[in-house]
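>> Question from a student workshop board

For tomorrow's exercise we were told to take the sequence and the ligand below, predict the bound structure, and bring the output to class. My setup keeps failing. Could a helper post the expected result so I can at least see what it should look like? The ligand is alpha-D-galactopyranose.
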Amino acid sequence: MNDDSKAAARIEQLRTRLKSRRGPLSSSARIFRAPGRVNLIGEHTDYNDGFVMPLAIGFDTWVLAEPREDDLVVAESLDFDAISIHRLGADVGDGTSSGHWSRYVAGVAESLRIAGHAVRGMDLVIHGNVPIGSGLSSSAALEVAVATAMIAYLDSSPPTDLDVARICQSAENDFVGARCGIMDQYAAVHGAAGHAIRLDCRSLQHELVPLEFTQTPARIVVCNTMVRHKLAGGEYNRRRDECGVAVGVLASRYPAVTALRDVTSEMLGSVAEAMDPVIYKRARHVIAENARVELASSALRRGDLVTVGQLMRASHDSLTQDYAVSCLELDTMVDIATRQKGVYGSRMTGGGFGGCTVNLVAPECVDAFRQGVSVDYERMTGVRPEIYVCDAVDGAGEVREH
Ligand code: GLA
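>> Workshop helper replied:
Here is what the output should look like for this input. Compare the format with yours to find the bug.
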């Protein structure tokens, strides 16, 4: 099936499901989408006011929406084969566990309302193909797709793109319980075909970095360890707290420090004695990782993929040793990838504790890479990985039905 017929089949699937529940659809029924992302480099830096470099990828979540006359958001997930009903203004997620999909939907509605937007009641049918719990931001894709749908039916002026990302981040922070930074939602909104997004998470301004790799062509290949992570779980939030402790120690010596973004290696060295060694390592990762994003974006711009690859590997080692968010399967996947021909660099991507690696691979070596990684990873772990060759795509928007 080519892309057009896949899209037509997806549209038909969404419409058929809503029709079977509500009868014929009105002309105001529309479809919206938002993509997942892969982060090239800059991990666990976003909530430290630092730098990240994600790109939106071709996995996405689609939402068919049709307004209702009442104040209910009735959402049906084709992926979970379940329906959830939320009354606008009511508590989010009564009786559901913290990471339940329906909380993302209701959380987005309530975050939009808190931001002053009069969300309408509506029927939603949701279908996503971003692998869940794989570090490719299925959550942000869901949040941003739902937000894009709800915003399309506002009578008042819509929030800015940046506000959409912030509102979706709040939905996850306040109603799901994962204290994520802004990277994923930002990428789902601002993605641009053929480009990575170098985002300054303090100023919330970004530059697009072209990924055409003209001098030295390469493909971005994502390898899924098939180990599911769970960000709503405690380790992610604990890392945030540890960074907060580091900032506390540093600010008592350097009052201008409000986030690890403000700290140099020298400053960190000067408080080493006063700092718990684990907290010290966490801070060391963030400071070095911020520097790596800057180096990687200039290396990308000059087509120096060897340097980008080295920075990716250094990032992975730091995430393993200093930040302790990798796991055996991710380390194994990176080691296997690094041994393949034509690989510039490999590292875990996203929150960690499972999920995917991101790899930069010479185009002529991609087939052999897929084959080699699959065979070796399955031999070593007993699990067959999934491997995706990714292009950078545009951020959220309406799916036009032809
Ligand atoms: C998750 C979070 C992001 C970011 C990454 C780690 O994807 O949602 O905000 O913190 O982990 O870089």
